[in-house]
């Protein structure tokens, strides 16, 4: 038995492959760097869903259907009452998604792809006592998310950066939330249930809940000069450095570089706080040096969450919403895996080893 199912193979998939030794991510036969360079969010969504639905899905068609789905699900924003809005954004978003009908058909897929993109900006606005902004069907999903968040047309660099983020995080092997999605799919509960389970797994700080704490860490460190000492003291207290380490990668997470690349046009056009960028670089360098010295037997490098934090902050998302933005991008991976599992048709039902007491002999 392996704690945490480490190295256990629990599914066969055509969707994505994570090579932790080489630091390589392949999605449906295309390497991540190629995908980020050449594909939009809608393009990668079409790629992931290809062959898994009752009809074939092309990028342009999916963009149009998704835009209509955003308008459809916007109606559900009305259900956001005071008690729902008192929840953290990711929990409020989950509560709204839970109101969508369950199903296995393509309309359910479209609703689920659109729902997080519409609900998160609406929840954030309502929590600031602002009116939610209705979707604009003429826009691609990334640009519309930013417009629904701020009420302004995003710049070209901002739309491109969010689009690159959504592509980068669209799928990533059998991570905890994707496994949760497949387990639910194997019971034939429906795709909404799969997404709800996956979202619940994602929000933990050891999975998709880390980027907010990355910014907390940068704030606490404050200056580049303070980085090495602060990080050393955090490790002395037994804390983990947020944005570093990964269960599979033994080298740099390729998604970190994809996001660093996506940040460049924003930086070059002055749309990222320069001091924040410089502090992050200093903290990354100090953390890599100190982790190498303190954990010589465990290669620890930067993971996707470190640059996620910088990118989403630069795009104007509050840190409490970062996990929700992650969910917007990852939902397509959850859905593709759920469909793949459903088509496989076999219930996931592993066994456990009982280590408790035995009944007293009669
Ligand atoms: N900081 C300091 N030490 C670390 C870190 C870290 N970020 N990550 C792992 N280690 C150390 C552990 O303390 C342990 O050391 P030890 O052997 O001396 O006790 C060793 O590395 C191995 O740790 P494990 O717990 O076996 O590693 P695991 O595979 O379970 O951890 C995880 C992966 C959970 C991501 C971990 O690296 C971590 O907690 N990172 C910080 C949180 C974070 O960034 N999460 C986002 C992950 S990316 C994503 O899911 C989208």
Question: How would you briefly describe this protein structure?
Answer:
It catalyses: oxaloacetate + acetyl-CoA + H2O = citrate + CoA + H(+). The chain has 362 residues and is mostly helical.
The major pleated sheet works out as: 3 strands, antiparallel
**Average pLDDT reading:** 95
Low-pLDDT residue spans: none
**What number of domains?**
2
How many helical stretches? 16
Straight-line distance between termini: 32 Å
Question: Superfamily at the CATH H level of the largest domain?
Answer: Citrate Synthase, domain 1
Ligands bound to this protein structure: acetyl coenzyme *A
Q: Rg, please?
A: 21 Å
CATH class of the largest domain: Mainly Alpha
Estimate what percentage of residues fall within beta strands. Answer: under 5%
Q: Give the class from helix and strand content and strand pairing.
A: mainly alpha
Count of individual beta strands: 3
User: What is the N-to-C succession of helices and strands?
Assistant: EEEHHHHHHHHHHHHHHHH
- Spatially, the strands of the biggest sheet line up as 1-2-3
Helix content: 55-70%
InterPro entries: Citrate_synth-like_lrg_a-sub, Citrate_synth-like_sm_a-sub, Citrate_synthase, Citrate_synthase_AS, Citrate_synthase_bac-typ, Citrate_synthase_sf
Active site: 246, 305
Pathway: Carbohydrate metabolism; tricarboxylic acid cycle; isocitrate from oxaloacetate: step 1/2
Protein name: Citrate synthase
């Amino acid at each position: 038995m392996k704690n945490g199912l480490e190295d256990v193979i629990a599914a066969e998939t055509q969707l994505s492959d994570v090579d932790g030794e080489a630091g390589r991510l392949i999605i449906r036969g295309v390497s991540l760097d190629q995908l980020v360079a050449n594909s939009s969010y809608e393009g990668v969504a079409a790629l992931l869903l290809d062959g898994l639905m009752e009809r074939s899905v092309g990028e342009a068609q999916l963009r149009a259907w998704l835009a209509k789905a955003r308008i459809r699900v916007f109606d559900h924003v009305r259900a956001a009452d005071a008690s729902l809005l008192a929840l953290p954004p990711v929990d409020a978003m989950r509560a709204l998604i839970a109101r969508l009908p369950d199903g296995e058909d393509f309309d359910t897929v479209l609703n689920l792809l659109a729902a997080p993109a519409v609900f998160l900006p609406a929840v954030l606005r309502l929590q600031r006592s602002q009116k939610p902004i209705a979707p604009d069907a003429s826009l691609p999903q990334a640009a519309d998310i930013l417009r629904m968040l701020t009420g302004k047309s995003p710049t070209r660099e901002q739309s491109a950066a969010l689009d690159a983020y959504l592509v980068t995080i669209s799928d990533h092997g059998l991570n905890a939330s994707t496994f949760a999605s497949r387990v639910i799919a194997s019971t034939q509960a429906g795709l909404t249930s799969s997404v709800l389970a996956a979202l619940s797994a994602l929000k933990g700080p050891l999975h998709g809940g880390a980027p907010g704490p990355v910014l907390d860490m940068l704030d606490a460190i404050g200056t580049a000069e303070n980085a090495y000492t602060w990080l050393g003291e955090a490790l002395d207290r037994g804390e983990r450095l947020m944005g570093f380490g990964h269960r599979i990668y033994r080298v740099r997470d390729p998604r970190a570089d994809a996001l660093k690349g996506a940040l460049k046009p924003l930086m070059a056009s002055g749309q990222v706080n320069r001091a924040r960028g410089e502090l992050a670089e200093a903290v990354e360098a100090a953390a890599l040096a100190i982790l190498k010295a303190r954990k010589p037997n465990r290669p620890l490098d930067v993971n996707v969450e470190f640059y996620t934090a910088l990118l989403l902050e630069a795009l104007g998302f509050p840190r409490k919403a970062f996990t929700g933005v992650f969910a917007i991008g990852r939902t397509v991976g959850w859905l593709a895996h759920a469909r793949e599992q459903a088509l496989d048709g076999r219930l996931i039902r592993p066994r456990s080893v009982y280590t408790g007491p035995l009944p007293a002999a009669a």
